[in-house]
């Protein structure tokens, strides 16, 4: 079943822009649609619809694609807001230093659970809760955080985000080692 982009020009523009980036990165890597589907765990039809701007990208889907293409999530985004099961994320900035590529996101974390699949080896996440309370970290041992608290963890295992008692706002820094 096809999931058309949400109504409105912003949602259509997001789907089209992200789809174009996915296709360009896949082509540059010399990976066919079938191979990307198999490696990311997504259906070939889903990927085709994403690349053609006919399906809204979710945070989980974008992470699966970025991980399979060995690129940071920000290669697929440019300030767009993307949604997961419990997290809404907006890329705020990206920079490189001699050891890593760094990304900073503004997050809203709902009082549901967002499970994130493992990222590439060595990827580190630093979450600082700004308002409310949240739980974050490896699924086997998430850490509760209140406003003003920070948690750093290696994200190469399944990890989660969950708002506690309502939504929380946070800043997430992701560090992809070279």
TrEMBL record:
Q: What transmembrane ranges does the database entry give?
A: none
Molecular functions (GO terms) = DNA binding; DNA-binding transcription factor activity
Swiss-Prot/TrEMBL keywords: DNA-binding
Cellular component GO terms, alphabetically?
A: cytosol
Q: Which residues form a coiled coil?
A: none
Looking at the keywords, is DNA-binding present? Answer: yes
Q: Where is the HTH cro/C1-type domain?
A: 22-76
The name on file for this protein is Transcriptional regulator with XRE-family HTH domain
